Amino acid sequence: MSVIDIAELDGAALSRELADSLVQLLECARRNLEGDRETARASLARASCLLQIEVERRAVGGAERAPTGALAGWQVQRVKAYVDAHLEGPLHIRELAEVAQRSSGYFCRAFKRTVGRTPHAYILGRRLDRAGELMLMSDDALSEIAITCGFSDQAHLCKAFRGRHGQSPAAWRRERRDLGRRQEAVDISSDDMAADYRPVRRAGRAG
Questions:
Q1: SS3 letters across the chain
Q2: How far apart are the C-alpha atoms of 188 and 170, rounded to whole Å?
Q3: I need a labelling partner for 67 at 20 to 30 A (CA). Which of 10, 39, 198, 199 fits?
Q4: Which pLDDT score is estimated for 24?
Q5: Domain regions of the chain by residue span
């Protein structure tokens, strides 16, 4: 964060949850600065992300208030964006609560009330969505797709995938690819028929 970015907070006090999170992250970075620089950098990156979220929230409408027991629109959008950007790794409730600037317990209850699913169910759904996209858009092995989407291994992906679709990822992929090839063949055939059609013009009579 730059000095200008921080100044955009208009001098208003940070929420207690955000302030506590920033203190913990910065303290973690200080402790690990010499011995574990990767952990220190990760802590600083998360602190910067939280501050940036606060800057943007206030810029687009800091007066927005969430209904009692629910999350505000900006909180939901920030959490969803954070999830999509970090699907390949572990996602902890504590991290998402920090993004929403709420305590972990409040965040879990409010997220379910607002979105209609628990954070865990939402994350699993997004991982399955991403896996489906990769299965159709790439030739990557299922084991690679599983890791890319945050599943522990291919077996974990297969179990979750069967729970949603009622069939294995391999069968689901093959079925849709076969359907796509058949549709492509129909389209090509239709184009060929249209190109071969030549209307016959009759010679006009001499006047």
A1: CCHHHHHCCCCCCCCHHHHHHHHHHHHHHHHHCCCCHHHHHHHHHHHHHHHHHHHHHHHHHCCCCCCCCCCCHHHHHHHHHHHHHCCCCCCCHHHHHHHHCCCHHHHHHHHHHHHCCCHHHHHHHHHHHHHHHHHHHCCCCHHHHHHHCCCCCHHHHHHHHHHHHCCCHHHHHHHHHHHHHHHHHHHHHHHHHHHHCCCCCCCCCCC
A2: 27
A3: 10
A4: 76
A5: 1-63, 69-111, 117-190
Surface-to-core class of residue 99, CB atoms within 10 Å of its CB (0-12 exposed, 13-18 middle, 19+ buried): buried
Q: Residue 11's pLDDT is what?
A: 42
Please provide the distance, in angstroms rounded to a whole number, between the alpha carbons at the two ends of the chain: 86
CB 58 within 8 A of CB 9: yes
Give the integer Cα–Cα distance in Å for 33 and 42: 11
Q: In terms of pTM, does the model score above 0.70?
A: no
Closest CA to 121 of 131, 111, 130: 111
Q: For 102-156, how does the pLDDT look when each residue is reduced to its tens digit (9 = 90+)?
A: 999 999 999 999 999 999 999 999 999 999 999 999 999 999 999 999 999 999 9
For the domain covering 117-190, report its CATH number.
1.10.10.60
What CA–CA distance (Å, rounded) separates 177 from 171?
10
pLDDT score recorded for residue 3: 37
Query: Could you read off the pLDDT of 72-95 as tens digits, one per residue?
Result: 998 999 999 999 999 999 999 999
